[in-house]
């Protein structure tokens, strides 16, 4: 089980390598700059020694190799984890060599004064912290580079001062390596949490996108179904008008015959029923035409008072037969609208008032509000129940 956990911890996903190599090229160029500065110090302190040059050549070779590896990865982006895995292994191998070279160079610095070793220690410590910043996403490379360089630096201090002071510095350096290792694990955990959160959000976004597409498809189907219904109503209303018209012609012929009173009453009843059906079919045809956009307003300017008096004359007999009357209070106003559509709306409201509030007075009031005319139609009937008010614009709803 322990071996399995180690393998799982050392395995790198493709997103880790993508993130690592996106940062590596610039990081290793900076590393070469740091190494060059340390090399200048080593050559200044040990001008006759060959080892600073060997150390510098090895560092430049390994760092340049890592920069070239990062450049190749970013310019030939592997397609999957299998293709990316060799790059990760090569990175770990080269960072191991860099860590060993840093550690071995500490022993060379330990042959001089303490302040020379101290400057080298600061350079190595800063580089180790930089490794955590740039390599924490690939923990095996980061941990290997830390524990190949920092412990060797600690032993170099013991080599320089085998006494208590050297041992104390060794302990502090090892503690520093431990803290950096913990920081590496925590930063990787933070990165994994962010990646998991991003994947979760991407999945949710995909679900929402798919749901939105399904809703759009359902909306499109509903619109098509509604248009089909409207077209059907239009055709049905149009076709049914012909037999209704024929019934009207037959009743007209029957009225010209010498019929008794009872037969004439039956003829009038048939005629009234035919007219009611014709009006209903006309309403259905108007609704279907509205649904399919077949009605376009044709506004024109006209006198509203004379227009309303014409509607009152059309309904005066019906109001008188019901025991009521139609009253109007208006001003000398001109309006710019479609007279046919306005007439249909007012006629529907007046006829409903006469039908559902028989014997009451219907009042039509017009007043000016700014550049608009406000028209109110009211009656003395019981009105609409409160629970039915929200349905007044529903098609075919009846309280």
Low-confidence stretches: 1-6
What number of domains? 3
Oligomer: single chain
The largest β sheet comes out as: 3 strands, mixed
What is the residue-mean pLDDT, rounded to a whole number?
A: 84
Shape: rod-shaped
What percent of residues adopt helix (DSSP H or I)? over 70%
Alpha-carbon distance between the termini?
74 Å
Residues in β-strands, percent? 5-15%
Query: Could you spell the SSE succession in H and E letters?
Result: HHHHHHHHEHEEHEE
What does the radius of gyration come to?
47 Å
Plain-language structure description:
A hairpin with a 2-residue loop joins strand 4 and strand 5. The protein is rod-shaped and about 140 Å long. It has a three-stranded mixed beta sheet with strand order 2-4-5, with helices on one face. A two-stranded antiparallel ribbon has the order 1-3. The two termini are 74 Å apart. The chain has 399 residues and is mainly α. Helix content is 75%, strand content 7%. The protein folds into three domains: 161 residues; 69 residues, Helix Hairpins (Orthogonal Bundle), CATH 1.10.287; 92 residues, Heat Shock Protein 90 (2-Layer Sandwich), CATH 3.30.565. Helix 3 runs antiparallel to helix 4.
What does the secondary structure layout of this molecule look like, with pairings?
Elements: H1 2-10, H2 14-45, H3 51-75, H4 81-109, H5 114-135, H6 139-160, H7 164-255, H8 261-291, E1 300-303, H9 304-321, E2 325-329, E3 334-337, H10 339-356, E4 361-369, E5 372-378
Helix pairs in contact: 2-3, 2-5, 3-4, 4-5, 4-6, 5-6, 5-7, 6-7, 7-8, 9-10
């Amino acid at each position: 089980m322990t071996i399995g956990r180690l393998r799982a911890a050392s395995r790198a996903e493709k997103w880790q390598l993508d993130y690592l190599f996106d940062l590596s090229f610039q990081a290793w160029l900076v590393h070469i700059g740091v190494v060059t500065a340390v090399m200048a110090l080593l050559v200044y302190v040990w001008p006759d020694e060959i080892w600073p040059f060997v150390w510098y050549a090895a560092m430049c070779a390994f760092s340049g190799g890592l920069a070239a590896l990062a450049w190749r990865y970013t310019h030939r982006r592997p397609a999957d984890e299998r293709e990316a895995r060799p790059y990760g292994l090569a990175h770990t191998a080269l960072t191991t060599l860099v860590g060993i070279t840093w550690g071995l160079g500490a022993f060379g610095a330990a042959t001089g004064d303490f302040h020379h070793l101290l400057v080298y220690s600061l350079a190595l410590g800063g580089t180790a912290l930089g490794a955590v910043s740039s390599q924490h996403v690939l923990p095996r490379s980061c941990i290997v580079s830390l524990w190949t360089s920092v412990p060797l630096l600690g032993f170099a201090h013991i080599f320089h001062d085998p006494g208590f002071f050297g041992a104390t510095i060794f302990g502090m350096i090892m503690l520093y390596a431990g803290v950096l290792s913990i920081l590496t694990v925590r930063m990787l955990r933070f990165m994994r949490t962010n990646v998991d959160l991003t994947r979760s959000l991407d999945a949710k976004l995909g679900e929402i996108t798919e749901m939105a597409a399904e809703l759009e498809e359902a909306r499109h189907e509903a619109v098509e179904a509604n248009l089909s219904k409207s077209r059907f109503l239009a055709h049905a209303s149009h076709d049914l008008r012909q037999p209704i018209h024929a019934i009207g012609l037959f009743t007209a012929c029957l009225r010209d015959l010498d019929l008794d009173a009872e037969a004439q009453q039956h003829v009038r009843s048939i005629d009234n029923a035919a007219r009611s059906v014709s009006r209903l079919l006309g309403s259905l045809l108007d609704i279907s035409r509205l649904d399919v956009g077949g009605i376009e307003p044709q506004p024109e300017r006209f006198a509203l008072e004379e227009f309303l008096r014409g509607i009152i004359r059309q309904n005066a007999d019906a109001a008188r037969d019901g025991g009521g009357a139609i009253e109007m209070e208006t001003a000398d106003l001109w309006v710019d609208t479609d007279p046919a559509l306005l007439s249909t709306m007012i006629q529907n409201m007046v006829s409903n008032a006469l039908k559902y509030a028989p014997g009451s007075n219907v009042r039509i009031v017009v007043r000016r509000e700014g550049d608009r005319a406000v028209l109110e139609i009211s009656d003395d009937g019981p009105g609409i129940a409160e629970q039915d008010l929200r349905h007044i614009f529903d098609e075919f709803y009846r309280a």
